[in-house]
Design goal:
3 domains, 13% strand, Rossmann fold, Helicase, Ruva Protein, domain 3, 16 strands, 5-stranded parallel β-sheet, alpha/beta, 19 helices, elongated
Amino acid sequence: MNKTPTILVVDDEESMRDFLEVLLTKHHYDVALANNGKQALNLIKKKNYDLVLTDIRLGDITGLEVLRAAKKKNAATVVIMISAYSTTEIAVEAMNEGAYDFVPKPFDNKELIQTIQKALELRTIEHEREILSSQMKDHLHFEKIVGSSPGMQLIFQKITQVAATKTNVLITGESGTGKELIARAIHDNSPRKDKPFVVVNCGGIPDTLMESEFFGHVKGSFTGAVSDKQGLFEAAHEGTIFLDEIGELSTLLQVKLLRAVQETSVKPVGGTEEIEVDVRIISATNKNLEREVIEGNFREDLFFRLNVIPLKVPSLKERKGDVEILARHFAEKFSKRMGKENVKLSSYAIDFLNKYSFPGNVRELENLIERSVAMSSTNIILPESLTISMHKKRRWIEGIQNKRFDLDDVEQGVDLDEILASIENAYLKKAMEVSGGNKSRAADLLRLSLRSIRYRLDKSDLDI
């Protein structure tokens, strides 16, 4: 059975404590109360809480001291700050001290509960990941692949199963999904891990040079061949060769590659002797090779040789639950690389990322976070700090808003979050037009609080 999450509420206003106790208990949380900072510190000393919800101004000590004490006692404790006297400086300081989020008063009850739920979900995911990493560290090396969605758990399982074999693997998936990382993980967890892992970009080498790159050449075999050259297959002997963008190979090179795979030997360009090679082949493509075979663009016999074990990598759109984990991982990674204090993402920024489609997948997310960390003037990334070009933002938002949805589409699968976001954005835009840009009036028209409409406008990033 899952343990009921424990929440410590710290506020010097009795009415607020009572209100939060009722609200949180209603949502099945185990709630403890502290009416000042010192009492909170005593409670924290005695018990680990899953989450601490504390006001900034407590009369005796500040909420920041409660935050520090909670994090010192247990770094995994989630702390959310609330205050009616919020400033950017206080919010940044709180986030730098380890707060998960900063919520101004008056807050929308639903949004506060959602923030708490997300924070606790992330805590659980990170805890499970730590356990999994601890269990795998002596045997498996997936540390460069981040994700906990069902699709990625299936990928980890397949890597484990495939790694112990010598069988050829074909990894398919959209560009930017991390196919090379998965190929490296297979190699690193295989009996060949101490042998070479050779990467070949089949789409980045001209056909005239590819044969020489694959199989090597002897001196004088063609103009410019001033000495013997070892090919990449020979360089990968007893190890693994990773053929990225395999779908880009010309028909002639497909024939030569097929022979090398079948014979487990290669002949250098201009050479007369075969060289035996023991190489495991992992290939990758973003193309549909089965369709390429049908259309005559890829040899069927080579396809079957390479596609002994197929492994399909899900797109980032298919693993939405991983966006936040990946984004925070990249923020930490690039903060260290750039010598910055750990740059964190606000929950509003995470909401924005969760609603973006990421056509470039994980690579696009990584590049986005790298730019945002580099350009950020504070240690907190807000939605407006995310450096997606305005042209791209507008095109994305307009694309969603202009889309027409049909209930029959459910049969093929739909993105419900995208549909709901498009409806919300359309109503927000119309309300702001009708109210002449007056947020208070627009909030009244939509039966929302002023705080709520500000939040929704911020996360929608509408150009209003």
